[in-house]
Amino acid sequence: MKNPHLQLMVHGKNIGKSELDFSQKSNLGIRLDSIQKLKNPNYLFLNFTIGANVKPGKIVFSLILGPTINIISIPLNQPVPGKGIKYARGINSTDFIYLLMPDRFSNGDPTNDHYANMRDTVADRTNPLARHGGDLQGIINHIDYFQQMGVTALWLTPVIENDMPLEKEPNGWLSGYHGYWFTDHYEIDKRFGGKEAYLKLVKAAHARGLKIIQDAVYNHIGAAHWIMDDPPSEDWINRWPAYQGTNHREQAVFDIHGSEKDKEVMEAGWFVPHLPDLNLRNPFLATYLIQQAIWMTQEFQLDGWRVDTYKYCDPVFMNNLNAALEKEFPLITAFGEATVNTVAAGAYFCRNNLNVSWKSNLTGILDFPVCYAMLEAMKKNHGWTDGVNRLYTTLAEDMLYQNPMNNCIFLDNHDMDRFYSVVGEDWSSFKMGIGLLLTERGVPHLYYGTEILMKNFKNPSDAMVREDFPGGFEGDPQNKFLPSGRTDSENLAFNYVSKLANFRKTSSAIGNGALMQYIPSKGVYVYFRYDKHQTILCALNSDTVSANLNFEDFSERTKGFETATDIITGASYPASEKMIIPARSITILELKKR
Ligand SMILES: [Ca+2]
Ligand SMILES: [Ca+2]
Predict the structure, then answer these.
(1) pTM for the whole thing?
(2) Catalytic site residue 234?
(3) Which of 131-140, 235-244, 572-581 has the lowest mean pLDDT?
């Protein structure tokens, strides 16, 4: 590894009082730099330097405590070949991401649905808030489906162990089916199939050209995390005299007029009472998490990261983590979940062109401002800054990002009302949304089920937008993975997504080209994606009357082209004439010189 340092945290009753013997011959080339002890006698931190010529093998040492001798042996594996570049390839704007929740997608192995020795022993599909039994084998079983759809990367909600109890709360049940409540950072949840199934999934996905994005949470842990039973020191957790929730106001982090108090509450206040907030300024904890991220990336040959609750994390820690990953894996990317309403706020949390005292080094963000703007383009009448003009004005502020192409764009996710419901189950709006998603700048992600018109609002709870994929579970009356199991309109939706996504896969202009957008006129928004090989014209008519598209109005980009081919229908039009863009539609054309 490029970083030769390794910190081992040893945990055991009074282990901090033991004597260390590190004289074993197998440790040749491994230097023990220091031993650190804390007030809590149950921990010992050992700092090693792994010499450049050390052979794969083991780090072996003994801890002698009275009459007891503990011999500890830590495997030191050969690094994965490829110098951190042949794998960990990163996610970029040529990719099309499919976001899914393993518990809700497909149950490929009913033998792992529940374990008697875990806190939550329930797998019950009749309870929307309980675990349902979906797993990694279920995902492996549907790689064909992703490929048909034109997906190039899978983002799974977290796969780390969530050994949290199923609890009855006044507002319903609480269970860790979604994966965001870690209880052991070094375990893959065995109800998903454990490490073996995860390795199998990565291997199967890579063999078919699909990348894997892991979902990380650094802001908090589940209250049942093993560290909570015996914290190395009290300050691993942000503690308050009485419960203090975060204020959720990202402004408090960057506001030049803001107070330290508000900032402290934002970053160190808890997300909810059952998720202890991690003190990422503690150097031992920071090293623990950074080493875990490096280990995961290599062990499972991950391609990219998505980071949950990014804006609530200590920014210095996040920069150190991003830099440490990039040092080992130069192509790796991460996009942070920063739920913000403005471009300036989004830019603050990733690589930006802002003149600010602290600069983030994050590759990109989940682009909420563009998401909200795309939804408004379909839902709201156009006004000076409303409707489709909001999308135009939002993208016009891309100057604040170092590279807006690194941002991830989307129509909904597991924390939002489902897109098809948001647009009133309107087929025209659906096509406009998918058309925008797959042609606008950035890395698009689709939330599972959108392609088969899954719907719902988050009422009464998030579980309503996290329903099981029909056909993913034994005994499902329909199998919507197959055309025969889908209704006509579901097939139309799937085929529309698939057609555009597969076109996008081969389109250099959409994958890597520039964006040029024109000021919308009467609700018609025309933009181009282009590079020296290809020019794509997109015309979104958000109005309720049809409009004329005159190619000459956009001569900066249309000059020299003779035909325009609709990439959905295949029909060609002369680029010398006007074209009709029907009301409430998007037309996507490839311009050609005959
Ligand atoms: Ca299962
Ligand atoms: Ca926090």
Answers:
(1) 0.97
(2) no
(3) 572-581
